[in-house]
Amino acid sequence: MTLAAARALAAAVAAIAATAVACGDNVTPTPLRTTVASFPDVQNPDLDLLFLIDNTTSAYNERALTESPLADALAALPGGLPNLHIGFATSDLGTLGTDSPTPGPSVGTSEEPGHCVGSGDDGRLVTPQLQLPEPYLVIGDGSQNFDGTLRDTLGEIVEGIGVAGCGFEQHLAAVARAFANPANAGFHRPGANLAIVVLGDEDDCSVSDPSFFDADPTTLGPLGSFRCTRWGITCDQDVDSVGDKTNCRPAIDSPYLSDLAPLVAAVRAAEPDPYHLTAFAIVGDPTPVRVETRDIDRSDQLALAHSCELTDSSGSLEVADPAVRTAAWARELNGAWSTICRSDDTQPVSQLSAQLTQLVAGNACITAPVDPATCTAADVDDLTGARTPLALALAPSGRCPLLATVDRAGGAAASPDHHVEVACDIDSMTEPDAGAH
What are the angstrom distances between the C-alpha of 33 and each of 36, 308, 367? Predict the structure, then answer.
C-alpha cells in the first residue's frame, strides 16, 4: 500500500467511525473519545495553487486576485512565502463533454459573447501577456520566473484572460482536464501540497454528453444557462417549474451533465494524499435556489434566480447564481466555499488563507467542546498506522480556543511521513468541528 493510499484509508476509517458514533441510538450525553486535531510532523513548504477562472466575467476576478491582499496572505503563511507554483485555467471547454472525445455543435459565433467552439481552452494553463519558460508562475527560495510583483502579475493575467469565454462554464471538468492535459506537465509536483480555487459567478455546468449543446429545445429546453440547472441539480421540488427549491444537490446519473463523483476522483488521482489536498470556491451562495421566468431573447423562459448581489464601488450591480454543484465539490475535497457577493474582498481571501494554512501547517486548532484534561497526542506513521505517545500542551491562541503543541523530548523524531493526532473526550451530544482533514 502506498503512503497516499494509507493516508486516504486512515481518513476514510476515521470518517466512518465518527459517523457510526454520531448515528448511535443512545441519546444520553456521555463522553466520546474522538480525534479533534491533526497536523503533519514536518511542515511542507511546497504549494501548487491552481486558479480555475470563469472567463465570462472580470470584475469579481479582478477584485479577488488583485485588489484583495492575496499576495500578502501567501507571504503570511506559516514559514513565510511557500515554494509556489501558481497556475491559471479557464472554465471554457467549448462544447466538449467528459464522455466523448468529439466536441458537440458550436454555440454562437466568434463575434458573439459567450460563444462556444471545439474544446475551448481545453484545461491548458494560461499566462496571457507574459512570456514565461513555464505555463505557470514559479516563486520561492528567493527567485521567480516573472518580472515585477506577484500582485501586479496576477492583475496582468486576469486582464489577459478576459471575458470572451464560453457561456456554459465547465468549472469542474476544466479542473480535471487541467491535470490530464500534457501541456501542463510539471505544474503539480510529487509531494507538494495542492490547492484548487474556483472563482466564478455561475455554477458548474460540466457536460458529459455533447448533445447537451444541440439547439433543438424539444428535449433540453431553450439553449441557455437554465439547461445547466435543469440537468445539473435536483431538489425536493421539481426544478423545471417556477418557485422556491429546497435541499438542492448535484444530480446523479444526469443524461447530460457529469456526476460529481468522477470530477472529484480526477482531482484525487492527481493528488491522492488527503493531507496534501484542499479546494476552495469563491462563488454565488448555494442558497436560496429559486426558479423564475425572465424575458430572454424576447420570450418568457425559465431562469435561475440570482442568490446574491453586490453593488460595486462604481455603482454597478453585480449578481451571482447559486453554486450548488461547485460548493458541494469543494466540500468533497477537504475544502469550503465563500460568497463572491461581498464588498469586503478581504473576507474570502482570509478564509482561503485559513484553508492554505491548514494545508501547509495542518490543523492544530481545537474548536470542539473538549475536556482538556482528557486530551492526549500521538505520533502516527502514515504507512503502518503505528502510534507513539507524545507530550501535549494546550493553550488559547488568537481566534483558536485551544492550540495543540507537542513535546518530542524523549519521544518519536519528526518525520515527513508521519502526522500528529490529538484525541479528547467530548460531549457525545455535540457534533465536533470537522477541521481541515
Answer: 9, 40, 15
Q: Both ends of the chain: CA-CA distance in Å?
A: 20
Nearest to 271 by CA among 331, 183, 203, 359: 359
Q: List pLDDT tens digits, range 131-186.
A: 999 999 999 888 999 998 888 898 888 888 988 899 999 999 999 999 999 999 99
- Which of 24-38, 176-190, 325-339 has the weakest average pLDDT? 24-38
- Taking alpha carbons only, the member of 187, 121, 183, 130 closest to residue 155 is 130
C-alpha cell at 48: 501548487
Distance CA 134, CA 138 (A): 8
Tens digits of per-residue pLDDT, 203-226? 999 999 999 999 888 889 999 999
For 80, the grid coordinates are 513565510
- What pLDDT band is residue 436 in, cutting at 50, 70 and 90? very low
Measured in whole angstroms, the distance separating CA 119 from the mean position of its chain's CA atoms is: 23
Residue 262: cis peptide before it, omega within 30 degrees of 0 = no
d(CA 327, CA 350): 18
Is residue 266 within 8 Å of residue 181, measured between CB atoms? no
Q: Report pLDDT digits (tens) over 115-131.
A: 999 999 999 999 998 99
Distance from C-alpha of 138 to C-alpha of 398, rounded to nearest angstrom: 32
Secondary structure letter of residue 306 according to DSSP? P
**CB distance 326 to 228 below 8 Å:** no
Task: Give this prediction's pTM.
Answer: 0.84
Residues linked to residue 63 through DSSP beta bridges, in sequence order = none
C-alpha–C-alpha distance, residues 35 and 40, integer Å:
14
Sheet containing 336-339: give its strands across.
143-144, 137-140, 83-90, 46-53, 193-199, 277-283, 336-339
Separation of alpha carbons 316 and 305, rounded Å: 18
> Is beta strand 336-339 parallel, antiparallel or unpaired with respect to 277-283?
parallel
Residue whose entry in the numeric block shows the C-alpha cell 423562459: 301
- Main-chain phi, psi angles of 70, to 5 degrees: -60, -45
| Degrees, nearest 5: CA angle 252-337-41 | 105
